[in-house]
Amino acid sequence: MFLLGLQKKIMSNITFIMIKPDAVERGLIGNILKDINDAGFNVRALKLTKLSIDEAKTFYSVHSERPFFDELTKYMSRSPIVAAVLEKENAVSEFRKLIGDTDPSTAEKGTIRSRYAISKGENSVHGSDSDENAKIEAQFHFSGREILF
Ligand code: DAT
Ligand code: MG
User: Fold this and answer.
1) What domains are there in the chain, each with its CATH number?
2) What pTM does this model have?
């Protein structure tokens, strides 16, 4: 019971995020990590990595029928990304608040996407949309021993 409660608490307090190719290419890793730190998130896993086209297709498979899927997967595999697991109370919704709307032209002022994103496609950061997907996405990128509590 205790362990189940603890696991539930950890899972509702983590999110998986990426600093995407457009931001890494423009030297924005440090700026975005500072914004994340200033917003009160704790880093639990972190690495610079690169997705193959097939890994990008697997990661974004829920969007496989969408017209932008080809553009999205080519973009996400064209250069390195930073992958991270972040912890904060209500991490998923808190991180989505910090990054703002998918489209930078409608993202709230001061959000990461409104400040840095180039377009709806090249929007600088990813954040999981649910606790369940945060777990799946964290496990896609990190082994258990790379996530530290
Ligand atoms: P989010 O990243 O805000 O969760 P999403 O899950 O709907 O957005 O889409 C995943 C990514 O796909 C998004 O970050 C950028 C790309 N994308 C979404 N809609 C798009 C569109 N209309 N044109 C081009 N790229 C799009
Ligand atoms: Mg999404």
Assistant:
1) 2-146 (3.30.70.141)
2) 0.95
